[in-house]
Design brief:
Elements: H1 2-17, E1 20-24, E2 30-37, E3 41-47, E4 50-56, E5 65-71, E6 75-76, H2 80-87, E7 99-110, E8 113-122, E9 125-134, E10 140-141, E11 147-158, E12 169-170, E13 173-174, E14 176-190, H3 205-211
Antiparallel strand pairs: 1-4, 1-14, 2-3, 2-14, 3-6, 4-5, 5-7, 7-8, 8-9, 9-11, 10-11, 11-14, 12-13
């Protein structure tokens, strides 16, 4: 009887070890970036719409995968004229390239986090990048009874590698730096059943109040 009870106690842990699918909740996710201005300060901004799916196998991370899509037109640096310029053909050219996408090619354990190698497609150019993933929180129930987890991912890219070459020089100093640091703080909802639709959390105040 003792052995039976012990086996039953292990069932939840074993079940949790099975591969699970987590859908990014856009209303609780931030994709931020930082770039140098005149080599003297940082300009920070965000993309206000990020969607994605994480298929996680904690027992065998190599079987995990990540896909994410960012709406390039939602770029926001809190300065309207600058944002309009960033959306223009000089930079993101969102009319031609409306989305930024990431698709993983390899997932591996790295200390307490993960290292996710994949392909980033930005401005119509695809290049390999590495995401350093940390702060994967334990699952917890939200007020609606859905399982949620949080995760943070970070990487650095060269904007010139993606054809974003516009710049001006001031006293031999570029106005816009080449290196872009990207950080994603994502909240994810566990997909309750195979084939279920990803969560599309509304940004409307009333809906957001219910979700919080």
């Amino acid at each position: 009887m003792k052995h039976v009870l012990l086996a039953l106690g292990l069932v939840p842990a074993l079940a949790f070890a099975e591969p699970t699918t987590w859908n990014v909740d856009p209303s609780h996710t931030q994709t931020n970036f930082t770039v140098r201005h005149l080599a003297i300060s940082n300009v920070r901004g965000e993309f206000r719409s990020t969607k994605g799916v994480l298929k996680l196998d904690e027992k065998d991370p190599a079987k995990s995968s990540v896909e994410a899509t960012i709406d390039a037109g939602t770029i926001n640096t809190r300065e309207d004229q600058r944002d309009a310029h960033l959306r223009s053909p000089d930079f993101l050219d969102v009319a031609t390239y409306p989305t930024i996408t990431f698709r993983s090619t390899k997932v591996e354990k790295a200390g307490k986090g993960y290292r996710v190698r994949g392909e980033l497609t930005l401005h119509g150019v695809t290049r390999p990048v590495v995401l350093e993933v940390s702060d994967l929180t334990p699952a917890m129930k939200d007020p609606m009874g859905m399982d949620r987890r949080g995760v943070r991912a970070a990487t650095k890219i060269s904007r010139k590698d993606f054809g974003l070459e516009w710049n001006k020089m001031v006293e031999a100093t570029p106005v816009v730096g080449d290196e872009i640091r990207i950080e994603i703080d994502a909240e994810m909802v566990k997909q309750p059943a195979e084939g279920a639709k990803p969560v599309e959390a509304s940004r409307e105040p009333a809906a957001a109040a219910k979700a919080n």
